[in-house]
Specification:
alpha+beta, six-stranded mixed β-sheet, nuclease, Endo/exonu/phosph_ase_sf
Length: 255
Amino acid sequence: MPTSPSVSPLPASRTESDGSAVIRVLSYNIRSMRDDTAALARVIGACEPDLVLVQEAPRFFRWRKKLARLAAASGQVILSGGGTASGPALLCSLRATVERTEDVLLPLTPGLHRRGFATAVVRFGGAARLGVLSCHLSLQKDERHEQGGMLLDRLAALGTPHAVAGGDLNERPNGRTFKRLATELRDGWAVAPWGAEYTSTPTDPHQRIDALFATEGVEVLGCGVPIGHPGVTEADLRAATDHLPVLAALRVPAS
Protein backbone atom coordinates (compact mmCIF):
# COMPACT_ATOMS: atom_id res chain seq x y z
CA MET A 1 0.00 0.00 0.00
CA PRO A 2 1.18 3.56 -0.65
CA THR A 3 2.45 5.57 2.27
CA SER A 4 0.63 8.57 3.67
CA PRO A 5 1.38 12.00 2.16
CA SER A 6 0.72 13.54 5.58
CA VAL A 7 2.50 12.54 8.78
CA SER A 8 0.42 14.72 11.11
CA PRO A 9 -2.19 12.92 13.23
CA LEU A 10 -5.84 13.39 12.35
CA PRO A 11 -7.57 15.70 14.88
CA ALA A 12 -9.44 13.86 17.63
CA SER A 13 -13.13 14.36 18.36
CA ARG A 14 -13.76 17.18 20.79
CA THR A 15 -16.06 20.07 21.67
CA GLU A 16 -14.49 23.51 21.23
CA SER A 17 -14.89 26.44 23.63
CA ASP A 18 -16.96 28.34 21.06
CA GLY A 19 -19.55 25.52 20.90
CA SER A 20 -18.34 24.02 17.63
CA ALA A 21 -17.62 20.30 17.47
CA VAL A 22 -14.79 18.37 15.84
CA ILE A 23 -16.11 15.01 14.69
CA ARG A 24 -14.65 12.03 12.89
CA VAL A 25 -16.64 10.54 10.01
CA LEU A 26 -15.81 7.20 8.39
CA SER A 27 -17.17 5.89 5.09
CA TYR A 28 -16.73 2.16 4.44
CA ASN A 29 -18.01 -0.41 1.95
CA ILE A 30 -18.11 -3.59 4.08
CA ARG A 31 -19.16 -6.09 1.35
CA SER A 32 -22.05 -7.52 3.37
CA MET A 33 -19.60 -8.61 6.08
CA ARG A 34 -18.51 -11.57 3.97
CA ASP A 35 -14.85 -11.20 4.85
CA ASP A 36 -12.97 -10.98 8.19
CA THR A 37 -15.49 -9.28 10.47
CA ALA A 38 -13.03 -9.13 13.39
CA ALA A 39 -10.57 -7.21 11.20
CA LEU A 40 -13.41 -4.98 10.01
CA ALA A 41 -14.41 -4.15 13.59
CA ARG A 42 -10.79 -3.43 14.52
CA VAL A 43 -10.39 -0.97 11.64
CA ILE A 44 -13.60 0.87 12.52
CA GLY A 45 -12.80 0.94 16.23
CA ALA A 46 -9.25 2.20 15.68
CA CYS A 47 -10.56 5.14 13.63
CA GLU A 48 -12.70 6.24 16.62
CA PRO A 49 -15.48 7.66 14.44
CA ASP A 50 -18.49 9.61 15.63
CA LEU A 51 -20.36 8.62 12.45
CA VAL A 52 -19.88 5.62 10.17
CA LEU A 53 -21.37 5.76 6.68
CA VAL A 54 -21.67 2.10 5.66
CA GLN A 55 -22.22 0.68 2.18
CA GLU A 56 -23.16 -2.93 1.40
CA ALA A 57 -24.42 -3.61 4.89
CA PRO A 58 -26.06 -7.06 5.23
CA ARG A 59 -29.51 -7.01 3.61
CA PHE A 60 -30.94 -10.49 3.98
CA PHE A 61 -31.22 -13.23 6.61
CA ARG A 62 -30.74 -11.78 10.13
CA TRP A 63 -29.18 -8.63 8.72
CA ARG A 64 -30.10 -6.53 11.76
CA LYS A 65 -28.34 -8.94 14.10
CA LYS A 66 -25.20 -8.97 11.93
CA LEU A 67 -25.05 -5.17 11.75
CA ALA A 68 -25.70 -4.87 15.48
CA ARG A 69 -22.78 -7.22 16.20
CA LEU A 70 -20.47 -5.14 14.06
CA ALA A 71 -21.63 -1.94 15.74
CA ALA A 72 -21.08 -3.37 19.22
CA ALA A 73 -17.67 -4.79 18.34
CA SER A 74 -16.48 -1.44 16.98
CA GLY A 75 -17.88 0.81 19.70
CA GLN A 76 -20.89 2.06 17.74
CA VAL A 77 -24.68 1.80 17.71
CA ILE A 78 -26.99 1.45 14.70
CA LEU A 79 -28.46 4.74 13.56
CA SER A 80 -30.35 3.82 10.38
CA GLY A 81 -30.34 1.84 7.16
CA GLY A 82 -29.23 -1.66 6.26
CA GLY A 83 -31.77 -3.89 4.57
CA THR A 84 -34.41 -1.15 4.70
CA ALA A 85 -32.19 1.15 2.61
CA SER A 86 -30.98 -1.64 0.30
CA GLY A 87 -27.45 -1.58 1.68
CA PRO A 88 -26.41 1.87 2.94
CA ALA A 89 -26.44 2.23 6.72
CA LEU A 90 -25.38 4.68 9.41
CA LEU A 91 -23.68 3.89 12.71
CA CYS A 92 -22.81 6.43 15.39
CA SER A 93 -21.07 6.80 18.72
CA LEU A 94 -22.93 7.66 21.90
CA ARG A 95 -21.64 11.19 21.48
CA ALA A 96 -24.33 11.83 18.86
CA THR A 97 -27.77 13.16 19.78
CA VAL A 98 -30.18 11.82 17.17
CA GLU A 99 -33.03 14.02 15.99
CA ARG A 100 -34.49 11.80 13.27
CA THR A 101 -33.65 9.13 10.71
CA GLU A 102 -35.07 8.06 7.37
CA ASP A 103 -34.30 5.21 4.99
CA VAL A 104 -34.90 6.05 1.34
CA LEU A 105 -35.37 3.58 -1.52
CA LEU A 106 -34.55 4.98 -4.95
CA PRO A 107 -36.51 4.19 -8.12
CA LEU A 108 -35.80 0.71 -9.40
CA THR A 109 -34.44 0.35 -12.92
CA PRO A 110 -35.48 -3.07 -14.29
CA GLY A 111 -32.54 -5.43 -14.41
CA LEU A 112 -30.39 -3.32 -12.08
CA HIS A 113 -29.75 -3.51 -8.33
CA ARG A 114 -32.09 -1.58 -6.04
CA ARG A 115 -30.34 1.41 -4.44
CA GLY A 116 -31.12 3.60 -1.48
CA PHE A 117 -29.91 6.22 1.00
CA ALA A 118 -29.56 6.00 4.76
CA THR A 119 -30.11 9.46 6.26
CA ALA A 120 -30.23 11.11 9.65
CA VAL A 121 -30.15 14.46 11.43
CA VAL A 122 -27.86 14.57 14.46
CA ARG A 123 -26.23 17.00 16.90
CA PHE A 124 -22.90 16.96 18.69
CA GLY A 125 -22.87 19.06 21.85
CA GLY A 126 -23.71 22.68 21.09
CA ALA A 127 -22.87 22.44 17.41
CA ALA A 128 -25.43 23.05 14.71
CA ARG A 129 -27.73 20.30 13.44
CA LEU A 130 -25.98 18.07 10.92
CA GLY A 131 -27.57 16.13 8.09
CA VAL A 132 -25.94 12.80 7.24
CA LEU A 133 -26.34 10.58 4.16
CA SER A 134 -24.73 7.28 3.15
CA CYS A 135 -24.98 6.14 -0.46
CA HIS A 136 -23.86 3.43 -2.86
CA LEU A 137 -24.43 4.66 -6.39
CA SER A 138 -25.21 2.61 -9.47
CA LEU A 139 -22.70 0.84 -11.68
CA GLN A 140 -24.65 2.15 -14.72
CA LYS A 141 -23.49 5.68 -15.59
CA ASP A 142 -26.83 7.25 -16.54
CA GLU A 143 -28.63 5.87 -13.50
CA ARG A 144 -25.66 6.90 -11.36
CA HIS A 145 -25.90 10.47 -12.61
CA GLU A 146 -29.62 10.60 -11.79
CA GLN A 147 -28.89 9.23 -8.33
CA GLY A 148 -26.30 11.96 -7.82
CA GLY A 149 -29.02 14.54 -8.36
CA MET A 150 -31.33 12.68 -5.98
CA LEU A 151 -28.55 12.70 -3.38
CA LEU A 152 -28.21 16.48 -3.59
CA ASP A 153 -32.00 16.92 -3.40
CA ARG A 154 -32.30 14.59 -0.42
CA LEU A 155 -29.45 16.33 1.40
CA ALA A 156 -31.15 19.70 0.90
CA ALA A 157 -34.50 18.25 2.05
CA LEU A 158 -33.00 17.32 5.44
CA GLY A 159 -33.34 21.01 6.27
CA THR A 160 -30.13 21.33 8.25
CA PRO A 161 -27.62 24.20 8.11
CA HIS A 162 -24.80 21.73 7.46
CA ALA A 163 -24.49 18.21 6.10
CA VAL A 164 -22.06 15.43 5.28
CA ALA A 165 -22.54 12.75 2.63
CA GLY A 166 -20.40 9.93 1.43
CA GLY A 167 -20.09 6.43 0.17
CA ASP A 168 -19.13 4.22 -2.72
CA LEU A 169 -19.70 6.29 -5.85
CA ASN A 170 -18.60 3.59 -8.31
CA GLU A 171 -16.87 6.40 -10.19
CA ARG A 172 -13.54 8.21 -10.21
CA PRO A 173 -13.18 11.98 -9.66
CA ASN A 174 -13.11 12.68 -13.41
CA GLY A 175 -16.58 11.15 -13.86
CA ARG A 176 -19.56 13.43 -14.41
CA THR A 177 -21.45 12.29 -11.30
CA PHE A 178 -18.42 12.70 -9.04
CA LYS A 179 -17.82 16.15 -10.59
CA ARG A 180 -21.47 17.06 -10.03
CA LEU A 181 -21.22 16.24 -6.33
CA ALA A 182 -17.84 17.97 -5.99
CA THR A 183 -19.28 21.12 -7.57
CA GLU A 184 -22.18 21.36 -5.12
CA LEU A 185 -20.33 19.97 -2.08
CA ARG A 186 -16.76 20.00 -0.76
CA ASP A 187 -14.77 16.87 -1.62
CA GLY A 188 -12.88 16.06 1.58
CA TRP A 189 -9.76 14.64 -0.06
CA ALA A 190 -9.49 17.55 -2.51
CA VAL A 191 -9.89 20.14 0.28
CA ALA A 192 -7.64 18.64 2.96
CA PRO A 193 -5.80 15.49 1.85
CA TRP A 194 -4.60 13.27 4.67
CA GLY A 195 -3.60 9.61 4.71
CA ALA A 196 -3.76 7.94 1.31
CA GLU A 197 -5.95 8.66 -1.69
CA TYR A 198 -6.98 5.43 -3.41
CA THR A 199 -9.79 3.28 -1.99
CA SER A 200 -9.90 0.33 -4.41
CA THR A 201 -8.65 -2.28 -4.05
CA PRO A 202 -6.97 -3.05 -0.70
CA THR A 203 -4.38 -5.29 -2.35
CA ASP A 204 -3.77 -2.90 -5.27
CA PRO A 205 -4.99 0.63 -4.50
CA HIS A 206 -5.21 2.42 -7.84
CA GLN A 207 -8.47 4.38 -7.93
CA ARG A 208 -10.57 6.65 -5.71
CA ILE A 209 -14.21 5.60 -6.02
CA ASP A 210 -15.21 6.22 -2.38
CA ALA A 211 -15.47 9.74 -0.97
CA LEU A 212 -16.75 12.00 1.80
CA PHE A 213 -18.34 15.36 1.01
CA ALA A 214 -19.43 18.24 3.24
CA THR A 215 -21.47 21.37 2.70
CA GLU A 216 -20.03 24.86 2.91
CA GLY A 217 -19.52 25.92 6.50
CA VAL A 218 -18.21 22.54 7.61
CA GLU A 219 -14.44 22.78 7.92
CA VAL A 220 -12.54 19.76 6.58
CA LEU A 221 -9.50 19.25 8.83
CA GLY A 222 -8.25 16.13 7.04
CA CYS A 223 -9.64 13.36 4.86
CA GLY A 224 -8.30 10.18 3.32
CA VAL A 225 -7.64 6.47 3.70
CA PRO A 226 -6.33 5.90 7.26
CA ILE A 227 -3.15 4.04 6.28
CA GLY A 228 -0.67 4.49 9.11
CA HIS A 229 -3.36 5.67 11.51
CA PRO A 230 -2.74 4.31 15.03
CA GLY A 231 -4.31 0.86 15.42
CA VAL A 232 -5.10 0.44 11.72
CA THR A 233 -2.92 -2.27 10.22
CA GLU A 234 -2.41 -3.09 6.56
CA ALA A 235 -3.24 -6.72 7.34
CA ASP A 236 -6.63 -5.73 8.75
CA LEU A 237 -7.35 -3.39 5.84
CA ARG A 238 -6.69 -6.21 3.38
CA ALA A 239 -8.71 -8.77 5.32
CA ALA A 240 -11.73 -6.64 6.27
CA THR A 241 -13.42 -6.08 2.88
CA ASP A 242 -12.73 -5.25 -0.77
CA HIS A 243 -12.61 -1.46 -0.30
CA LEU A 244 -10.44 0.82 1.81
CA PRO A 245 -12.25 3.20 4.16
CA VAL A 246 -12.27 7.01 4.02
CA LEU A 247 -11.83 8.84 7.33
CA ALA A 248 -12.35 12.58 7.84
CA ALA A 249 -12.11 15.02 10.71
CA LEU A 250 -14.65 17.82 10.37
CA ARG A 251 -15.42 20.92 12.41
CA VAL A 252 -19.16 21.62 12.63
CA PRO A 253 -19.92 25.24 13.61
CA ALA A 254 -21.77 26.15 16.77
CA SER A 255 -25.52 26.50 16.52
